[in-house]
Design a protein that fits this description.
Oligomer: single chain
Largest sheet: 9 strands, antiparallel
Number of helices: 1
Number of domains: 2
Helix content: under 10%
Structural class: mainly beta
Distance between the termini: 114 Å
Strand content: 35-45%
């Protein structure tokens, strides 16, 4: 019995020694926390100027976990305040893990000449009315930018738009332009005459890509 007891005791000591020599390994491993970049644009997301005005780049700032990181700006150098049109300035930032974020500023340059075109009034598309109200020279608001039947009231787009130079119109990006929450922006559309204009809307798939022609 003494021999058996000594054998068991020796085996137990050996097992403990082996376990001690193995050390401890974390079965879960190490978890890394990613802090996504936060980008904030200075100033307005849509800036409206007239020919001859000066465009001042207000820039943007970005942080990762509360620490400032680099912002890349593209397009600011292309803003030409001598030519009516629409210019886009893009800001982007990338965190240490390669995740990026971006924002856009729309710069609208209007002709400085008094407009010879007055688009206020009611226009029609497929018999559906779109009432246009003049807010200022070259600045308008309309209540049915897509020219839908008025019975489709939740999807009617109420937007502000601009007469750039008496030959072109533009709807800048606008959030929740309809009761149903549709965001919208147009291409640079055409003023055919004081009684006719058109544009293509970038909105939900509900609107598609058709050219929307309006006439009095």
């Amino acid at each position: 019995m003494k021999i058996l007891h000594k054998t068991i005791k020796a085996g137990l000591i050996l097992s403990l020694a082996i376990l001690a020599s193995c050390g401890y390994e974390d079965p879960v491993g190490t978890t890394k926390v990613t802090y996504y970049p936060l980008l904030e644009m200075n100033g307005s997301s849509t800036e409206v100027l007239s020919v001859g005005d000066t465009y001042t780049e207000e820039g943007a700032s970005a942080t990762e976990a509360g620490q400032e990181i680099e912002v890349t700006t593209v397009g600011s150098e292309d803003v030409d305040t001598s030519t009516p049109g629409v210019y886009n300035v893009y800001y982007s930032a990338v965190n240490s893990d390669g995740f990026s974020t971006s924002q856009r500023r729309i710069v609208i340059v209007l002709s400085a000449d008094p407009s010879a075109i007055d688009l206020e009034g009611t226009f029609f598309r497929n018999g559906n009315p779109n009432t246009v109200t003049r807010l200022d020279d070259r600045i308008y608001q309309c209540n049915n930018a897509g020219g839908l039947p008025l019975s489709d009231s939740k999807n009617l787009l109420n937007v502000t738009f601009y007469n750039l130079d008496d030959t072109h119109v533009y709807v800048p990006f606008q959030v929740d332009a309809s009761e149903s929450g549709i965001d919208v922006e147009s291409n640079i559309g055409n003023i055919i005459s004081e009684d006719s204009f058109n544009w293509v809307l970038t909105a939900s798939a509900y609107y598609g890509t058709a050219t929307r022609n309006f006439t009095r």
